[in-house]
Input
Amino acid sequence: MINPHFSTKERILSAAEDLFAKSGFAGASLRQVTSAANVNLAAVNYHFGSKENLINELFKRRLDDLTAARMAALDKVRSSRQATLEQVLEAFVQPALSLASERGGSSFVRLLARAFAEHDQRLRRFVSDNYGHVLKEFAKVIAQLLPNLPKDALYWRLDFVSGALTYAMSDFGMIKKPAGVTDEQHRRTAAEHFVRFAAAGLRAP
Amino acid sequence: MINPHFSTKERILSAAEDLFAKSGFAGASLRQVTSAANVNLAAVNYHFGSKENLINELFKRRLDDLTAARMAALDKVRSSRQATLEQVLEAFVQPALSLASERGGSSFVRLLARAFAEHDQRLRRFVSDNYGHVLKEFAKVIAQLLPNLPKDALYWRLDFVSGALTYAMSDFGMIKKPAGVTDEQHRRTAAEHFVRFAAAGLRAP
DNA sequence: CTAGCCTTCGAACGCCCGTTTGAAGCGTTC
DNA sequence: GAACGCTTCAAACGGGCGTTCGAAGGCTAG
Output
């Protein structure tokens, strides 16, 4: 399960990502994590200090890359002469898609959905600090592309878009990957459907 | 906090709803629940048998009403001569809105979102058994209203719609109720925005 | 009044939790 | 090869967990 070639720290992070995604932060114990990682129990507190800090490191590791990739994609779209709503949405989704394709990335995506479901203030603060400003940047660009849309309507619709994406990427819904389709293709299809749906929703009369 | 006029069973259910919504099923203990309910610890196992069964009863209590109300609203729309997509979506949202306005209902809505985030198979099975067939009925009606939309696109979009609703109703997003607006008005506004957004998304070219 | 039943109660059960500790291992540096 | 850091280890800590138990309480029917 866990590759023995990686360092203790990395093995813990990987195992924790899987187990927390599966059972929740309170539901998965450090004993389960260290056992899956083939690592001594005390290693968590040695390398991360506490369970809570391990969770934070888990998010930091992935979110730093994700937010950077999203900002880069947004800047690219922004600098093009005639950006479309679809391109902006694509810039938002594509990096998340790449993340989900990484080793363990799909677990992390579900973890992210969990972080939203947890109303725990400490965790929400942490996620929004590392994540919030990117959403604001996207909101600004989208607002420019929909100049006739009142601000309150825009914010509502952006919430709906976030929800739709979170939900779909976490495999909550009834959509199941058909047999004979690679994960990659499945995600590509999901992204295409999402961009069409979200763009139309944002443009609603 | 907990009304002493209600029965032990009801006090436990109310307190459990609040605490599980706030801290998660694994995160809130029966000792916290019974303490908040002003009830002896052993009462949970006496009245419900186990923590897991308490959780099931929690969902049953609300979902039975919700699904019945949704089916009734759908039948009403169905029987009208010329049903619109907006009316069908309204029939889906309105009962959830009423539920959220009930005493403790807003906690339950967040609990429902948690149930989706938990990938726990037992809980998912239970929720989908009590919840799934209603979604299928709505899907059928919506499919008739969008005869040119391929089936796979329809299912993707319905997933997006579910996600948008779940997310928005659980207060995950950045939308905050403005001061001086009642909960009732806030939810009414949310529903209007949602129906417009979802209808447009479903009708996307 | 009393017998019976449903409910509540305090106390305890065994178990697992996150964290800490001090010793053991081990490669690097003088 | 001794001394030093960094890492791993087994073991234990106090505490909270879900659940169980037998006694006590309190209501109703005879």
